[in-house]
Predict the 3D structure of the following.
Amino acid sequence: MIPLKWITTCSHTHNGERSYYQIEDQIVNYSAPNFTLDAAIENVISPTTDQMWARKNAVCMNPVIVIKNNGTTTLTSLTIQYGMGSLTNTFTWTGSLAFLDTAWVTLPPFTWVTGAQDFYFDISSPNGGTDQYSYNNTWKSKFTYPLVMPATFVIEFKSNNNWTENGYELKNSAGTVIHTVTASSANAWYRDTLTLPYDCYEFRMWDYGEDGLAWWANTGQGTGVIRFKSATSAIILKNFGTDFGGGIFQMFTVGLTNTIEDSLIAPEARMEVFPNPTDGNVSINVALDQRQDATVEVFDLLGNVVYSYALKNEMNDTRYADLSFLQSGMYMVVLTTEETKVSQRLIIQ
């Protein structure tokens, strides 16, 4: 590879003032390809913690990688090994990749390993032969365990004014749709209690308007809600928020246990404030891991407390607050316990 670079500087004078323009160009020349048979792992789409693919993670089934043919011979087959902590799964890819072409490969569901922290990929035997450059054949990917849900829980969904845009579906690891809901009217609540067997599941919500259930730039659509809740208490297990654009992707498992702290369902404290944005009337939902004292405070942007209340020996609390006396703008709602603080931004219109 021979890079060539040059810089051209131009100038002109106008009304006695001189201006300069600089143009920089590069030409890269490549020599002939080094290998006739060279397959490479170009990227890992899932599982990974790479922010580029955050909307496609975390996963519990079907890893996805990108392979590339760096050899001059058309790539028609490849052995792919993969797994959590070790290479426990094998898949044979077949296709047709010309020189420098790439392909996304969706692999079969993998075997879970409790407590693993790395996911490994390895490719070999391109076209049944020997890869002439093996240094691009392996990939170690950091990953996050998906959400772990109890066998029985509630999916709670509230449509907004643009109800024709929204709905959701739930698939199991076989790709079968086992539950679906489509909004049938504006500002309607849908509460479904599900009992699921041990498996990996994929939850997807769509918004055809691509502006979520609430968006500051489209206040006319109102505010909706989508969340997972406990079937036995007021605890919110997963709140998806409302400004999610065209859709929500969430994989979760039922029955899986592991030692990764990020997979725990109940943190020390949870708080949800909705609707958000609001006209001033809000619900503040607090869920703690044990009975304890706490305070909830609303701060303006200058750090002044404009609203507050205390919780005494409580574990779960839902409070309806009238904040319509406050001016339109942004506020911070802060839940404080002896051990932690949880904050959420609130917009009053």
